[in-house]
Amino acid sequence: MATIITISQSVGANRIVPTVAIPHPTGDPSMEREDEEKLRMKMVERAVNALSQPVTEVTVF
């Protein structure tokens, strides 16, 4: 999971899951609590799914 995708690409990460922002990579404090929890769960599910996918090159999910 990465906020700045280009840095992850430049260091050779093979799976990249974009996040929200540098100060709050896996959340958004301006959202209502329930909506933010849904956002976090969606991001974690995306990351777990990325781990289960075969990749041969840098892939952004």
Characteristics of this structure?
single chain, 61 residues, mainly alpha, two-stranded parallel ribbon, 2 helices, 2 strands, 43% helix
Overview in brief:
Helices cover 43% and strands 7% of the residues. The chain is mainly alpha-helical and 61 residues long.
Distance between the termini: 10 Å
**Percentage of residues in strands:** 5-15%
Total beta strands? 2
Q: Helix coverage percent of residues?
A: 40-55%
Largest sheet: spatial strand order: 1-2
Q: How many alpha or pi helices?
A: 2
Unreliable spans are none
Strand/helix succession: HEHE
Radius of gyration: 12 Å
**Count of all domains:** 1
Biggest sheet: strands, sense, closure? 2 strands, parallel
What does the model show?
It is a single chain. The chain has two helices and two strands. The longest helix is centred in the C-terminal third of the chain and has 20 residues, at 33-52. It is flat and about 40 Å long. The protein has one domain. The chain has a two-stranded parallel sheet. α2 (33-52) links the parallel β1 (15-16) and β2. It has 61 residues and is mostly helical. The chain is 43% helix and 7% strand.
